[in-house]
Amino acid sequence: MSLMDTLRRWSTGRREAKLIQMLNGSLPVFSQFGSNIYASDIVQNCIDVIATEMSKLQPRHIRNTGDRQDIPKGNINRLLKFGPNPLMTTSEFIEKIIWLLLMNYNAFIIPIFDSDFSTGSERRTYRGFYPIDPSRVEFLQDPTGVMHIRFYFSSGVDFTFPYSDIIHLRKKFSVNELMGGGASGQPDNSALLQVLQTNHMLRQGLERAVKINAAVQAVLKMATLMDDDAQRAERSRFEQLLASGDSAILPIDLKGEFIPVRSDAKFIDKETMAFLQQSVLNWFKVPLPILTGEFDDNQYQAFYEKTLEPLVIYFGQKFSRATFTERELDTGNEIVWYHREMNYLSTTSKVSLLKTMGEQGLLTDNQKLALMGFPPIPGGDRITQSLNYIDVNLVNQYQMQNKSRAVIDDDE
Q1: Which of 103, 104, 107 is nearest to 40 (CA)?
Q2: CB count, 10 Å around CB of 105?
Q3: CA nearest neighbour of 224 among 183, 181, 254, 186
Q4: How many CB atoms lie within 10 A of CB 137?
Q5: Are the C-beta atoms of residues 221 and 257 closer than 8 Å to each other?
Q6: What Pfam families does the record tag this protein with (predicted)?
Q7: pLDDT tens per residue, the chain (412 residues)?
Q8: CA angle 168-170-174, nearest 5°?
């Protein structure tokens, strides 16, 4: 079954509904989002870095019960682990929604599920999660006050779903009441476009300078007045001498003077180019060492906390709210996006981490092996701990026992 067939099956259809009236009096109809900044290689590289790093996340359905945190067995975790839909793996799914979000400032994911009300409350069985890229969206409200969203696609089809069932991710959610981006619900890239246009003009000028520098090697000065035909003939004769000469000496009569042109083209200074590039990197919060792959532990940690961590937290909130019913949320169900596979630590830092966490008994043998890039071993679920540590609840008892022994030794 194709994606469109799946959406058609689960769409609520054209129910009696009307467009929502926004607070500013406009209608909530949003057309295809802009993409003109993505011709820039720097922009594409920045988005690709973020999408690649985020694709390492491992989303999991967990249930918090008091002090415990369980991973329920069920189809949600199976979908999140192996592939949210038949068309893509989990990594591809994450990469897709990151590109859609950073390109459009809005990303829509449609969960497909069956509802069961036999127990008196809704229980959902999920079939898949599908990211979509509509050409236009409309926000509607039915007579009961329930908000719906209608998606239009370039093929001419449209589908309508309850908005509460849709995972709607928004970037720079500010002046518009429903959509991310600017007031029109589209990316507001005007400031970035100015930088990219300047960068483009400078690079075009650099290209022309290189061509001119390579093309003009000398000037043939005519000592007499000649018409156009005579000048062309003289130039042709000079070029033939260049092409056929066996030595570096050219025979020229008294009418011409050969003047070589020194290759000294003036190019754009390094500081200007670096400033323009850094402006784009700052827009996407991607440091240059991250872009080139020449980062250390501290640089990646700063990149994670500044750029990736807000997305990790945001994804958990949005997916949890749309995936679970109110009752399921109240009983501790949520989707957490774990980032342990973002293995950026150097070997020295890994060894230090193994020593600290290993001595505390926080890692299994297989977890220690995985941190160093080795496969698991049979019986690797064993947890070992250093004897140099003691349970805080036993500290007083241990000290009292030692004090009693010291008193006995003194009496003897």
Answers
A1: 103
A2: 24
A3: 254
A4: 24
A5: yes
A6: Phage_portal
A7: 566 666 666 566 555 556 555 554 554 555 444 445 656 777 888 899 999 999 999 999 999 887 777 888 888 999 999 899 999 999 999 999 999 999 889 999 999 999 888 888 888 899 999 999 998 999 998 888 899 999 999 888 999 999 999 999 999 998 888 999 888 787 776 666 666 666 556 555 555 555 555 544 555 555 555 556 766 776 676 666 556 654 444 445 545 555 565 555 555 555 655 656 777 788 888 998 898 888 888 898 899 989 999 999 999 999 999 999 999 999 999 999 988 666 666 778 888 888 888 888 888 888 888 777 677 788 888 888 777 766 666 667 766 776 666 555 555 5
A8: 135
Buried b (16+ CB within 10 A) or exposed e, 154-181: eeeebbbbebebbbbbbbeeeebebbbb
Reported residue count of the chain is 412
CA distance 32 to 133: 9
Spatial neighbors of 307 by CB under 8 A, at least 6 apart, are 50, 284, 285, 286
Q: Supply 80's token pair.
A: 């999140």
Element (H, E) at 125: strand 123-132
Element (H, E) at 82: helix 75-82
Please report the DSSP string for 184-198 in residue order.
TSS---HHHHHHHHH
| Residues 120-132 as b or e (16 or more Cβ within 10 Å = b) | eeeebebbbbbbb
CB 359 within 8 A of CB 388: yes
- The pTM score is 0.68
DSSP class per residue in 4-58:
HHHHHHH---S-S-EEPPPTTS---EE-PPP-GGGG-HHHHHHHHHHHHHHTT-E
Spatial separation of the C-alpha atoms in residues 337 and 335, rounded to whole Å: 7
